[in-house]
Design a protein that fits this description.
- With 254 residues, the chain is mainly alpha-helical.
- It folds into 2 domains: 56-95; 97-114 and 129-254, no CATH class.
- The protein is built from 9 helices and 2 strands.
- 8% of the residues are buried.
- It comes from Cherax quadricarinatus (Australian red claw crayfish).
- Residues 40-65 are annotated as: Disordered.
Length: 254
């Protein structure tokens, strides 16, 4: 071995290569977001949606909107829909209600909860599988990508980058497979795709306390597809405990 290229020198060289690849991945991610925004042909993105007058057309338009809202609620939650109809509250469906819990209360409550350090779990862990599962680290294949994208909900809410499933499909399948394999090999995700947004959804019709909200965190659709591929591998190869909830196709998990 040439002098100066000992183990320490190789480690430094490897770290520099990884840092370079990470910077390239970050630049590529930013370029992808710009590409999608330009492809929209000037359409507004990231929640900046033009406002329309819902009262246009008079009572007939209002009745049609009420019918659509009621049908949407029926498809989403039949129990809640039936309760609103029986109680006569369906006529006010979609109408803005006075917010009992103000924004400052929500922010103070959840900020204190999220900023608090988690209690250390001193319980001993157990080894699920004795041997090394190399199957979890194999290169991702196109078929895996196709299965996840096909099963994904095209109308699911976008992350902070504004991407939806249709934006992901703008790029060839092989492009995503190659990119995911780079992420998997390097063990690094671009910064812009690591951002997520958290929204508070009310658990009841008229919440009166910050604790009556449920926090839902939404990440980029690209990361969700990538994680679903890895989660499918875990479910297939790793014998999970019956109490396991993460990495499983459970309600409330994307």
């Amino acid at each position: 071995m040439r002098e100066g290229y000992g183990e320490f020198g190789l480690n430094v060289l490897n770290d520099e290569c990884v840092t370079f690849v990470q910077s390239v991945l970050n630049e590529m991610a930013e370029a992808m977001l710009t590409c999608v925004s330009k492809n929209e042909g000037g359409a507004t993105r990231r929640g900046n949606v033009p406002q329309h007058n819902n009262n246009r057309g008079g009572r007939r338009a209002q009745r049609r909107k009420l019918h659509r809202d009621l049908q949407k609620l029926y498809n989403k939650d039949r129990t809640k829909c039936a309760k609103m109809v029986l109680e006569g509250r369906w006529r006010h469906l979609g109408a803005p209600e006075q917010q009992v819990v103000v924004k400052e209360q929500l922010q103070d409550f959840w900020l204190n909860l999220f900023a608090r350090l988690s209690e250390e779990d001193a319980r001993p862990g157990r080894t699920l599988v004795e041997e090394q599962l190399w199957q979890l680290q194999l290169p991702i294949e196109v078929d895996e990508f196709k299965r996840v994208v096909t099963a994904s909900n095209g109308s699911s809410a976008p992350g902070p980058d504004g991407w939806k499933l249709k934006d992901l499909r703008m790029f060839p399948e092989q492009f995503w497979v190659d990119l995911f394999n780079i992420w998997l090999y390097i063990g690094y995700l671009p910064k812009v795709f690591r951002m997520a947004r958290t929204v508070l959804l009310p658990k009841v019709d008229r919440p009166e306390d910050p604790g009556q909200y449920r926090p839902i965190t939404i990440s980029s659709i690209n990361i969700r597809v990538f994680h679903k591929i890895l989660a499918a591998r875990c479910v297939h190869w790793v014998p999970l405990h019956m109490a396991q909830r993460a990495f499983l196709p459970t309600d409330g998990l994307a």
